[in-house]
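# step 3/5: fold
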Amino acid sequence: MLGGVGNDIFILNASNVTALINVFGSGDNLIQLARVDSGAGMDTIRQSGTDMDMTHVKATGASTADRFSRIESIQMIDLATDGNGNTAKIAVSDVIDTAGMNQFNSDNSWAGPGATEIRHQIVVLGTASDTVELVDGNSAWAEGSTIAGVPSGTYVIGNHNTAAVQLLINSSITVNTSA
């Protein structure tokens, strides 16, 4: 799936997710390697009736030397629109591989007035029936303040303690952490 300039929405079903988590030659990657690559703009992955474990996406990404990711230039993950209770499992490396920096909350007010720290950021849209599982352990993530209007609603700011990563998660979503 390739996007261009503008605000693109990539709807991922179970087959798409299977293709993203498998290597070439298996799991629907029989003709070409599955990939989601967006262009400039505010771009969204929308889950459609499926959970997504980003930690299993077969990607190397920005956190490695070749800087290639199977999911590229995504600013938002939409768990809500399909009306199902969806789950997204996300690790720090997934945010680094996938997202740009300071698209939202550009002043990073969680760190105090005038903060200038730059972070990879993803906004997670969802409802009370959705879940985000943050990998990398309980002590790796610090819950910051809340912010309103990003893009609409109230979001809890989750900052990683040792990496330049920030998640803005809709305050209705259940958040779990795991090692």
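# step 4/5: annotate
Residues 108-115 have pLDDT under 50 and may be disordered.
# step 5/5: archive (pending)
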